[in-house]
Write a structure and sequence with these properties.
- The protein is built from eight helices and seven strands, in the order E-E-H-E-H-E-H-E-E-H-H-H-H-H-E.
- It has 202 residues and is of the alpha+beta class.
- A hairpin with a 5-residue loop joins strand 1 and strand 2 (9-10).
Length: 202
């Protein structure tokens, strides 16, 4: 994303994540006692950013009718948010399974803002730490039973989607950081043992 002001930004990438596109709405868990959870199950509330520009359009659609009940627009928003919540929960279970299988390794990335060089008197770079990626070497060492378990839960499909998405690190300015002989064989080579550094074009 490129920063417009201290509070505004726009997205430049080819795919905009659903968790970004859902703005200005978000689903929040309703605080409940253990007894209520057992009886009703987890309840959710739709929250929104009242200051969002989405609500400034004069040709917008109402979210509530004259009786204060959800309109079809709000019901569709609720449906999308619930789908995202279910996807989030499923993803968390699958990531936990990948972690238990020893596939996740921690990596750090050093991000240099556009125009920032090693000769600058003021270092404006930022380190993104705590990132975890799938190790292709660890994946290749998995036994058959673990692979079947990951396949059956859908976690293996998540692994391959993740590995494909990592090719984005080889696009544009990031690709210039790679060896001229071609892209690395796997993500371990891309990140290496040390922090990976790249620059933003701006």
């Amino acid at each position: 994303m490129n920063e417009l002001t201290s509070t505004q930004a726009y997205w430049l990438e080819r795919y905009v994540p659903a968790h970004v596109r859902r703005y200005p709405f978000v689903l929040a868990k309703v605080s409940m006692s253990a007894a209520e959870l057992d009886e009703k199950g987890q309840q959710y509330a739709v929250q929104f950013d009242a200051a969002a520009r989405h609500f400034e359009r004069p040709d917008g659609h109402p979210l509530l009718d004259d009786q204060g009940k959800p309109t079809s627009v709000l019901k569709n928003i609720q449906k999308v948010l619930m789908t995202l919540e279910q996807d989030q929960q499923r993803t968390e279970r699958q990531v936990a399974q990948l972690d238990a299988a020893g596939l996740l390794v921690e990596r750090s990335i050093q991000v240099n803002p556009a125009g920032n060089t090693a000769n600058d008197s003021e270092d404006k770079s930022h380190q993104l730490s705590g990132l975890r990626v799938v190790s292709e070497k660890a994946l290749a060492r998995l036994d058959a039973d673990t692979l079947v378990s990951l396949r059956d839960s859908g976690a293996l499909a998540l692994v391959y989607a993740h590995l494909v998405s990592l090719t984005n690190l080889q696009d544009g300015v990031i690709a210039k950081q790679l060896d001229s002989s071609g892209p690395p064989a796997d993500i371990d080579e891309l990140f290496g043992d040390d922090d990976f550094t790249f620059d933003f074009d701006g």
